[in-house]
Amino acid sequence: MSIIATYGDDFPLTYFVPSLMATGVTPKNDTVSAQEYLNFAKEDLKGEGNRALINAFGNAKRSIHKLVDDLIFQYGLSYYSRRMSFPQKLQTLSELELVSPFVLSALNVDRNAVEHDYVAPTLKRTREAVDVAELLLMAMSGFRLGIPYEGFCCWRKDRRHVLIRLNPWECKLTLHKYIRPDGARLRTVAGVRCYWQQVRDSSYKYFLEVSDTPWKTIEITKQEKEIWGPILEGFVDIQKSDRFEFPYVSMVLDERFFNTISSGIAEGRSVSQLATAQGFDSATS
Fold first, then answer.
1. Nearest to 228 by CA among 236, 218, 238
2. % of the chain residues with pLDDT over 90
3. pLDDT for the residue numbered 261
4. pLDDT value, residue 211
5. Would you state the pLDDT for residue 181?
6. How far apart are CA 107 and CA 90, in angstroms?
7. Within a 10 A sphere around the Cβ of 215, how many other Cβ atoms?
8. Which of 126, 177, 257, 275 could be joined to 24 by an S-S link, Cβ 3.0–4.6 Å?
9. Distance of CA 62 to the CA centre of its chain
């Protein structure tokens, strides 16, 4: 049974069907991953004295902050959260049901003590911080798998079937008109007429023509939160589902991240591939 998400009258879309999902989308110039910071923390713990404890605690903190910032970026929230503190970023992710802020907020208190009050953490607390970072990395990494960056939908207000894209570099959602090919499949799900057709082949080439110029653009800003907020929540719900039986294709973009959660070796792909596939300029990151 294929999943087609349908929504009530208070939602901007009547339905959404993913067509392109991506894993491991990170800012273009990043050189250190959350996993690497955690590895540094574990190595630091092998040392002795305050220097080892402070370095281990600091790298555990960096691992968590990098993971949070990755999630912020991947869902196009970088501009929206650019002036936010760490706890405020956690609250933003919590609103999308991506992370619970309670444990991380407690860890942030200890970080302030180390950085501002010149208090070295104890060995016990440092080990706890590293363990928390590792557990969070394992738990939250799943939220970086198969994020919907594109899909069919119907814009409720205009009753128009379009292709919607999430652009994490420019922090916006864009809606594009398309030309329906002959034999397009339509389904009625929960009383909603849905367009259901594979959009791309395994090489990410379109089976149908999509307009380059957006029909509508939604900036992921505070001013338009009432519009994009529910849509991103819907994307998270789709991403968290374990029933991926859609007409979609998927790409893995960050080999370092993929190898963290997989025993196999991934084919390395540039992060810019998603931008290229969608016609965006990743150089704006």
1. 218
2. 33
3. 41
4. 86
5. 66
6. 12
7. 15
8. 257
9. 18
Query: What tokens were used for 264?
Result: 């196999």
Polymer length in residues for the chain:
285
| Residue 137, φ and ψ in degrees, nearest 5 | -60, -40
pLDDT confidence bin for 263, thresholds 50/70/90:
very low
Average pLDDT, the chain: 80
What pTM did the predictor assign?
Answer: 0.83
The one-letter code for the residue type at 123 is L
The two most distant CA atoms of the chain are separated, in Å, by: 71
What is the rounded average pLDDT of the residues 108-126? 72
Tokens of 159: 């009753």
